[in-house]
Amino acid sequence: MKQLIVAPAPHAHSGDTVRRNMLLVILALLPAYVVSVLEFGWGALFTTLISIVACVGTEWLIAKYILKEEPTIGDLSAVLTGLLLAFNLPSNLPWWIVLIGAVVAIAVGKMTFGGLGQNPFNPALVGRVFLLISFPVQMTTWPLPQGFNGSYVDAATGATPLYYLKQMVKGGDSDAVNHLPDLWNSLLGVMGGSLGEVCALALIIGGVFLICTKVITWHIPVSILLTVTLIAACIGWTGMLPEGMTTGQYVAYQLLTGGLMLGAFFMATDYVTSPMTPLAKLIFGVGIGVIVMVIRLRGAYPEGMSFAILIMNACVPLLNKIRPKRFGEKVKTTK
Amino acid sequence: MNLILIALLVLGLTGLLAALLLYLMAWKFKVEEDPRIDLVQEVLPGANCGGCGFAGCRALAEACVKADSLDGLLCPVGGSEVMAKVGAILGMEASAAEPMIAVMRCNGVCEARPRTSEYDGVRSCRIQNSLYVGETACPFGCLGCGDCVEACQFDAIHINPKTGLPEVDEEKCVACGKCVKACPRNIIELRKKGPKGRRMLVQCVNKDKGAIARKACLNACIGCGKCQKECKFDAIVVENNVAYIDFNKCRLCRKCEAVCPTGAIHSVNFPPKPAPKAEPTDNAVTTADQAQSSQTTKKEEAQA
Amino acid sequence: MKTFSIGGVHPHDNKVYSAHQPIQECPLPKKAIIPLVQHIGAPAQPVVEKGQKVKVGELLAKAGGFVSANIHSPYSGTITKIDSTIDAWGMRMPAIFMDVEGDEWLDTIDRSTDVIRECQLEPKEIIDRISAAGIVGLGGACFPTHVKLMPPPGKKAEVLIVNGVECEPYLTCDHQLMLEHGEEIMIGIQLLMRALGIDKAIIGIEKNKPDAIARMNELAARTLGVEVLPLRLKYPQGGEKQLIDACIHRQVPSGALPIEVGAVVDNVATIYAVYEAVQKHKPLISRVMTVTGKSVEKPGNYSVRFGTPLTEVVALAGGVPEDTGKIIGGGPMMGRAMNNIDMPTNKRVSGLLFLPENESRRVEPENCIRCGKCVSACPMGLEPYLLAKQAEKQMWDEMEKHDVMDCIDCGCCLFTCPSHRPLLDYIRMGKATVGGIIRARAQKK
């Protein structure tokens, strides 16, 4: 008889792979991507292409020539990083800035820590924040949706709704309310903003798809969105809003504009940089929600999702100390 | 001007106060330490391998300083040379320790030990040993996953891809004993290095009865006892169907190697064709023995 | 529908191959090897000698301690030697070698097929008969059954939970046993309830066996105090602690036995053996095992006497398939891959699974991506990724602090890991080491 193979149990596997999970996330991002291409035209396509190619290329080069190990670009995690980075950039960003962002994302954000699974911070956000600090003007000049007309260079630019939302509460700009797009447009993404963050509806569809396919759990997105809703509602109830804006509208704007949806469903839920147990995930989400609202209301930047996620990323090792509920663990009674 | 003066004064006073406090603290909580500990530590190799049985070189240095004599205290890495220096510092006589070396007591090379199954789990001897007999039929032999290689801090042990067995680099091995502890099957042993590195050993630990052991591996010791009868110095004991050569008693006559029917006894670092004067042992060696031993060396070469 | 509360995975059940195959008697071999270790605990001590002639059902070896079990002769014939043989993982184990001559049974054993319902025995007598018959848990752990039936002082059993879950993929022997011998199992349940002095029993069956649920329901309707509980599909529902949680919503605390929450769990095959031992005086000399696999010619459920070489059972199922890469004793989740099939059957082996070569090899592990899927899959609420890393780094104290001893070896973590990391391999090794440390500490005190 030929040699039998022996190995410890179990001998079955669910068939799940890293690649499959990454692929599903990329799939879930597609609807939002289609919308942004329709709105921002060639710029969106071009930025994404550069970002992805640069991310994959950087990872391959570093793995092959610096770490001297078999490159693992086949797991698609670099593709996903590139895609997410592009989603966080204005579509009219010069190509060389995109390139720098992608190289920083992979080289500094991921490979310095030892590659996939070792990085404490979300690489795409590391890249994005690096660019935001280095090129503040370019990074905060968002093109207005033009439709798919191919004019990459001459895109008209303008501030995002979040800028006006902040002005409104600060009370500086009395005209702010009139600059906001109407709610339907913010749901469908007809407004200025980063490439992938504009269409809340498409992002929600993608997020629900991920939860249904069990790629992510509901804990992080739901806790982020609930926290933001709650804080925004408190602002409304305390009467800080100007005339012509109801609490409901304000909450809806906070939820639908900026990078909140993209962050809640796709960035904060990144496996490597999010905690593992349900309770820790909830705390993580609430933390992000609080920080993002603090930055949105009081910070120097109109948007704080990237910073909020990165700050909470730093707390993950601590949050991972929270143990899951053990089987047979007695419920602690208060003495 | 006034502002600068005040600032200088406040900062200066604070600094003075802090210095005073630190001085008082240092004085109050001073730990009396024998200055010789530092001296001894400087002589030690500083590898912190733990081979001496203490938690690093500092701990050994402390133990040396505290001890009344250096008996039983040995840095295996530095050997007697370093211990002599330590002795000189402390004004004690260092016991002459013979240099040791880690030896591999399994010779189940691929040709001799047929594979019966293929192990597909984690490459770890510890794990494989806890579940399976290994990839061959020998439940005592080397598993070849290299736990010893991983344990070695001195890069002195490597798996030979040809035989699938680890080999000890005699130049690099410092006999710290890490590999001995790492091996789940207790195959690796620390033995005396021997004069000019020459030593005899049984390269098998199979405790099965002869026929079963032989079926699993052609190089196995079958516990026949021929070597035991042949040995004039009572250096060989056959227990649990496996022979063991006591390195303290062995006089390196190599007679046992000649009579071993399976070639489980090995001589190491002997010259290929021993001339009468090169033989380290005394007149016990006869020409007949030499003829036999040279035969076995040839046989070994042929096997290799 | 009920199930256990923490973790769990959903492997493909693959039961179609051997499901509903009637139990077939395996012919007697010419030579048999009866291992002396067929249970958890001390090996049994042989009471026969070389050259002695024995009949079917005669005692060959008696229990070697409190946690141990008797072993009876499954054949009539002559003892040729008492020596060691090789088990399925290549290790040696003591065994009795026998030449089989005919099939002559002890006169005391009732070999008729009549179902005997009446029982007037005292609880003590029932337990004695179970103990004498050498019955062990046939679900896989092989814990001697009589030990379970004698709760330590101060503890009282409240409910008997019957394990008809068979959550391991591929295996169908318990399912078929319930279909064919449901009535005997029901009597066995009543015997155990009598022995324990309780009036409540719950039969847990997963819903992928609707015919077994229907059959047991029909029988339970006629029996006082017995209830059939259909359970949602989830692995490892057949684990003792998980089953108790699913059936009566009580969680056995860490390190404790089921009796702590008033439950006694027995597998249906064990209960069938109890029936035969108590009502028919037949000791445990055979079991039903499943021989299955995608390319097995005649997959099915075979009643095999212990000591029959596995090769004979395999021959009955059509031989070893061409493409076999791995042969597993038991199911794919917890069964162990064997490195030979020359070994004899014993009380432990509940099935023989032939995996084709292309399913036999593990996928090369990648980096841990900290997805936490192992944490959510672990039915004991442990953190497998952490324990595996600690075991790799030999941090035994940390492992103990993170409750490694609660691990039940179910394999959910490795099953679910998208990076194919060998989590359980490390955890199992760590558990063994930590267990040793704890025992050594206890001995010192």
Keywords summarizing the entry:
heterotrimer; A: 335 residues; mainly alpha; two-stranded antiparallel sheet; 58% helix; globular; disordered C terminus; B: 304 residues; alpha+beta; 3-methyladenine DNA Glycosylase II, Chain A, domain 3; Alpha-Beta Plaits; elongated
For the termini of chain C, the CA-CA separation is: 47 Å
Structural class of chain C: alpha/beta
Unreliable stretches of chain C (pLDDT < 50, length at least 5) are none
- Radius of gyration from the alpha-carbon trace of chain A, in angstroms: 21 Å
* Mean model confidence by pLDDT of chain C: 91
The CATH H-level superfamily of the domain at 123-280 in chain C is NADH-ubiquinone oxidoreductase 51kDa subunit
Greatest interface (CB-CB under 8 A), with counts per chain: A-C, 41 and 68 residues
The helix/strand order of chain C is: EEEEEEEEHHEHEHEHEHEEHEEEHHHHHH
Number of domains of chain A: 2
The helix fraction of chain A, in percent, is: 55-70%
> Mean of the pLDDT scores of chain A?
86
Number of helices of chain A: 15
Q: How are the strands of the biggest sheet of chain A laid out side by side?
A: 2-3
Biggest sheet layout of chain A: 2 strands, antiparallel
| Shape assignment of chain C | globular
Specify the CATH class of the domain at 123-280 in chain C.
Alpha Beta
